[in-house]
Amino acid sequence: MEIEREIINGNGLKVPCVTFKPLNPIGAVVAVHGYGGLKEEMMGFAWHMAEKGFVVGAIDLRGHGEHPLDLDRDILLDLETAISHFRPFGKVTAVGHSLGGRLSLISSADYAIGISPALDKTFSPQTMGFLEERRGYRVHKSNCNISKIVNDLPLFQSDENKSLIIYGSRDMPEIMSNCVKLKSEGTQVVQIDNALHNDIFLFGPTFETVTEKMQEWYV
């Protein structure tokens, strides 16, 4: 397997990425971190999926990691640039955590998996305070805050043939209630027992659930 750091160029952007390339790939995955995260947090997930035969790119969103731009409302364009970059390897699945999960589910990827996705337009003051205290210090931003960005993003439109949502039994209350509601409406939703919001993307049962769905999609 080859592992390389690269800069994805497209749409006038330079998106930092670490790419995992197995021999004879069967498709591609773009791995997207959450608010206050960075590509390095997604490398364990990326390695796991690369072992299953996928080219995987773990990217930095603007405002995060090595991305040169501050956080702003065009954040989805970073993911779309990466999706276009990896299309030569076949169908592309976007897999993201939290904010990255929301972006993945509304992206143009062939398939999408949202892990504990932030699907609401607004969140409680307690949740926003938690994000800013525990994660906000890792974000380089100018005058644009995460509340405005989340509110401006398109809402997720469920498609049971191309999307999957995963959440933890000890997830954030707003995320849990949204996932329960979506499941009752027919969306493919899987609860991971004992998983917390902050590390569900590193949990063995999450890997297993993602792998099972990817094998179904790419057979």
In short:
With 219 residues, the chain is an alpha/beta fold.
Structure write-up:
The structure is a single chain. The chain has 7 helices and 8 strands; from the N terminus they run E-E-E-H-E-H-E-H-E-H-H-E-H-E-H. By secondary structure, the chain is of the alpha/beta class. It has one domain: 3-Layer(aba) Sandwich (Rossmann fold), CATH 3.40.50. Strand 5 (92-97), helix 3 and strand 6 (111-115) form a beta-alpha-beta unit. The two termini are 22 Å apart.
List the SSEs and their pairings:
Blueprint: E1 2-10, E2 13-21, E3 27-32, H1 43-51, E4 54-59, H2 76-86, E5 92-97, H3 99-105, E6 111-115, H4 125-134, H5 146-152, E7 163-170, H6 173-184, E8 189-196, H7 204-218
Parallel strand pairs: 3-4, 3-5, 5-6, 6-7, 7-8
Antiparallel strand pairs: 1-2, 2-4
Provide tags for this entry:
219 residues, alpha/beta, 32% helix, Rossmann fold
**Helix/strand/pairing category:** alpha/beta
Number of domains: 1
Q: What separation lies between the terminal Cα atoms?
A: 22 Å
The CATH homologous superfamily corresponds to Alpha/Beta hydrolase fold, catalytic domain
Strand proportion: 25-35%
Give the strand order of the largest sheet, numbering strands 1, 2, ... along the chain: 1-2-4-3-5-6-7-8
Q: Count the beta strands.
A: 8
The arrangement of helices and strands along the chain is EEEHEHEHEHHEHEH
Low-confidence stretches: none
- Identify the overall geometry: globular
CATH class: Alpha Beta
CATH topology: Rossmann fold
Radius of gyration: 16 Å
Instruction: Tell me about the largest β-sheet.
Output: 8 strands, mixed
Query: How many DSSP helices?
Result: 7
Please give the CATH architecture.
3-Layer(aba) Sandwich
Q: Kindly report the average pLDDT value.
A: 94
Share of helix, binned? 25-40%
